[in-house]
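Q: Fold this one first, please.
A: Sequence and structure below.
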Amino acid sequence: MDLLFDHTLRNAALGAALLGVVSGVIGSFALLRRQSLIGDTLSHATLPGICLGFLIAGGRALGPILLGAVVFGVLAGLAVLALVRATRLKTDAALGIALSLFFALGVVLLTYVQGQAGAAQAGLESFLFGQAAAVLTSDLAVLAPIAAVTLGLTALFWKEFKLASFDPVFARTIGLPVTALETLMTLMVAIAVVIGLQMVGVVLMAAMIIAPAAAARQWSRTLEQMVVLAALIGLASGVIGALLSSTGQGFSTGPLIVLVATGITVVSILVAPGRGVLWQVMQRHHERQQIDAEEVLATFRHLIYEHGDPTYPVERGMLNTYHGRGVSRVIEDLTAQGLIAQASHMDSEGDHWVLTPKGLERSGVADA
């Protein structure tokens, strides 16, 4: 109910929701293109644009500040693309160079701006770490159309983005302007970063670009599923983070949003079916059990052929000799599956086991 009546909380939640949806959608393509650090680079690269926008506007006017952030974010993205294509540098090195250069320039400009009269009251440093409580209705009126344009471009160029992300070589072969598409995707990442500047700030924005997409990747099989799920995870992270920050404990909204998104990502990495760490551990354990069972059945088959008797009783001690003490668990599993059964044979020498008709068939014994 507080969300409905608390003006500040409502604005923060709506802004966080916009950020989460856009970040999830755009971050999916960045993740698939193996450019996980692009969000970090572009978010830090926006700092000089923020400072210049403030200087040009003469105050903390959101429009010029966001425009400056977009311009410098795009410049940083283009610098990365140019370095990768014109030199032998790998993408990660180009990202590191662009991040360092633009952020250093931003720090210099920020120091200059803060030395001007009235700059301290402008709260320009809040763009470094975010200040969701400062989001106004007028800010949402600026951010919402930006988010809508970004999502609209994604829908419009869906097939082209998909092909350029998965197979850029084939995309070039069929005549698609891959460089232009990559530039457009970089622009859209910069726009997503700009949307999040007021919410989570320059420092934490990289997590919002990657975390929802990384979590969605664990649960999805197709790009369509991944993008939708990433948008929902981003939306949930934003709203939950905003609600948690309203508990009166004095927690900042931006870091809480990032913590929620990161928590969802960690859980996804651990338990997602098929790709989760725990799932894979269980799968490997199951495969190990199957291999052990096949090895024990192979021993039964060997002894049957050696003695020419499909009902030959195999003593547990012999199985221990072949397979070690851990064979007891395998015997229990094979018995539960109805592949072997305990036999009454020379009880004084220990337990004996024989293959059942089902076990004979499973083992490929000719006399089954």
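Q: Good. Now the second chain.
A: Here it is, same layout.
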Amino acid sequence: MRSLNMMTLAHPIFSFAVAIIIALTSCATGQKPEIPTVNHVELDSYFGLWYEIRRIENRFQDNEPSQGDGPCFNTTAEYSALPKGKLGVKNSCYRKSGLEVAQANAKSVLGSNNSKLKVNFTGISLLEWLGIGNGDYWIIALGEKNTENLYSWVVVGSPGLDFGWILSRTPVLTESGIEKALSAAESVGYDRELFKSFQR
């Protein structure tokens, strides 16, 4: 990978804008029938670093912060345990201008057995407590656990099928793994052709 100047866009204005986009989309699609998720997610097997294999294009990764920046590529997501049952989320990607990082807090939806998360990028405790800026992050399918007892891949979506990601513990996922993930997404109503790779 070529050398890139690093910059951080995790300041409140960026985070708040991302969260509002997610919240507005969630509100607009809230009336659609709910899609199924996995029955249970063991968080200890979910925590750690994930590599984005494919995604459905979305505004906060594909719109350019500055002209010429291009879409996010080589995206990673890292999940960790926080006090009071919360999860920490760190999303990182590269653009032509350098590294972009966004931090968030997440919590499990009551009764979902950790298969549905509310993710908040605002960085403002009051808004998070009020649920303002929460985005739906639903775990649709999980791959088998690896030798470290970590889920090997995951399909993440949203109830309105507006967003979708295939993530893997390794930068490259086998063709059979990608096919399993796409089939799982398709089974709940996604168009598999919308999932695209942004790896370099």
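Q: Anything worth noting on the second one?
A: The first strand starts at residue 48 and ends at 56.
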